[in-house]
Amino acid sequence: MSLLAGIKTGKKKRKDLLSAGFSKDNDNEKEVKSRIELQEHISDGQPSERVQETSSETNTNISANQSIADQLRSQLSGGGAISTAAGAAAPDRDLEDRGRIRAAVREKQNVQSTLHQQVTIASPAIYSNDADQTISEMLKAEKSQSMSLEELEARDLLRLGKKRRLKQNSKSNVDSDEEDDVLIQKQQAFLSSSQSQKAIERATSRAVAKSDLQDKMVSKLWWWIESKEFDRKRLVALGNHVSLAMAPPSQSIHHGRHFYLVPLAHVESLAAAEPEVWDELARFQTSLRALFRQQNYGLVFFETVLPSNSFWQTRLECVAIPNEQWMDAALFIKQALLEQAQDDGTHQKVMATTSTKGLPACVPKNFSYIYMEYDQQQGYVQMIESRDFPKDFAVDTIAGMIQEDPMRFRRKLKVAHEEERAVMLSFLDKWKTFDWTLQLDA
Asked: Taking a C-beta distance cutoff of 8 angstroms, is the pair 223, 259 a contact?
């Protein structure tokens, strides 16, 4: 009696819990009932009050969506600001919709869409058509996809026990030794296929891990156009081999006068760059010098390649400084390099670069160095041996020339998006006259 009483008590408690219910289960149940009711009325051709209410709500939502869409179109055509989250980046589209930059953005989007289609085609049908399948069909598809042919064969081999073999021998008069040989052959074939499958899976996992690691390292190179963290709104011009981008405010000595020249292909140092990269670098440098010469500014270009085993993409930085300080740039840079060599205890020689003896002629490939150019094909280069060499040495040297704060004090600087966009548009308006990449479009 006590056992039965306990069972009844448990049933009563469960019944009370079910009667009380949880809001989530009740909501799901109500939603299912409403859908069933809606389907029954639609199939019978007799719309009920519930159907009418649903249709009226749907019409209201459609009209609301249409009004929002009309508002977005009017704001886009009028160039006004969009307050919705989806249209927050619309004012910056004009920064990306420019000549070769527009073509590069569309090409990257096409590549991403092609990869997405390939992944969708390669994915199992159980995941691609979930919306068109019922629960029973999804369960059936999952069961069919859960085991491979090799796994099914292994299961059948395991199920083939001693009693089953004896029973088959008695019916077919097949020798047990002969059947054991066939069974052993099947097991060996299965093991060889499973081992090859495991080898393929190991190779695939290693390739995926390598790709993920490379993507993670590339994402840190935010100044490279191939990185996911690259901000296209800062892209000024795009050549066939080199891109010109404006440095972000937190990485600039002076926002609007600090730029990056970055090869499109992977290059660890400009000393190892191809001749076509150097040709486009020279064209960009000539255009930038001509632009800032009109504003009484001189340019200093510099590259730092530190000793490291990690993945790296080089960049040639450019900083515009007033002519008064730029006239003394050669002496200032050479003295700073000599003092740093003494501090490091390396006493590395400071080599001068000229039009006849450029950077590739002074530095072998796969060597670490710092290069600073104060005039056209005139600068200084020094080898780096110490891993303690300051990564901000060049930019801090230029900041000292114009009496600005070192870069470490500017990394937390935050500038409003509207202000950064205004600086970019102002520079682009001046750059149009000197943009040599427009000839590539023609």
From this structure: no
Residue 405's pLDDT is what? Answer: 87
pTM: 0.60
Looking at the DSSP bridge assignments, the partners of residue 414 are none
pLDDT (tens digit, 9 = 90+) per residue, 394-431? 999 999 999 988 888 888 888 888 999 999 999 999 99
Cα–Cα dist 117/24, whole Å: 36
What's the token pair of residue 349? 């020689």
DSSP 235: E
Closest CA to 279 of 267, 269, 270: 270
Q: Which residues contact 228 (CB under 8 A, 6 or more apart)?
A: 215, 218, 219
For 114-127, how does the pLDDT look when each residue is reduced to its tens digit (9 = 90+)? 544 543 443 444 33
Q: Quote the CA–CA distance of 60 and 414 in Å, as a whole number.
A: 43
For the CA atoms of 410, 416, 421, 424, the dihedral, rounded to the nearest 10 degrees, stands at -20
CA nearest neighbour of 242 among 259, 263, 224, 260: 263
Token digits of residue 41: 């009325």
User: 393-401 and 329-344 are packed helices; what angle lies between their axes, rounded to 10 degrees?
Assistant: 140
Q: How far from each other are the two terminal CA atoms of the chain, in whole angstroms?
A: 97
Rounded distance between C-alpha atoms, residue 176 and residue 137, angstroms: 42
For residue 331, give the 3-state DSSP assignment: helix
Token pair 């809606």: residue = 38
The alpha-carbon radius of gyration of the chain (Å, integer) is 35
Strand partners for 320? 299
Closest CA to 95 of 416, 441, 424, 415: 424
Specify the pairing of strand 369-375 against strand 378-383. antiparallel
Residue 327 tokens, joined: 């006239």
Q: Dig out the tokens for 218 from the structure.
A: 């590339």
- Element housing 300 (H / E): strand 297-305
- The Cα–Cα gap between 260 and 273 comes to 16
Tell the residue number behind the tokens 């509207």, with chain if given: 418
Please give the Cα distance from 270 to 281 (Å, whole number).
Answer: 10
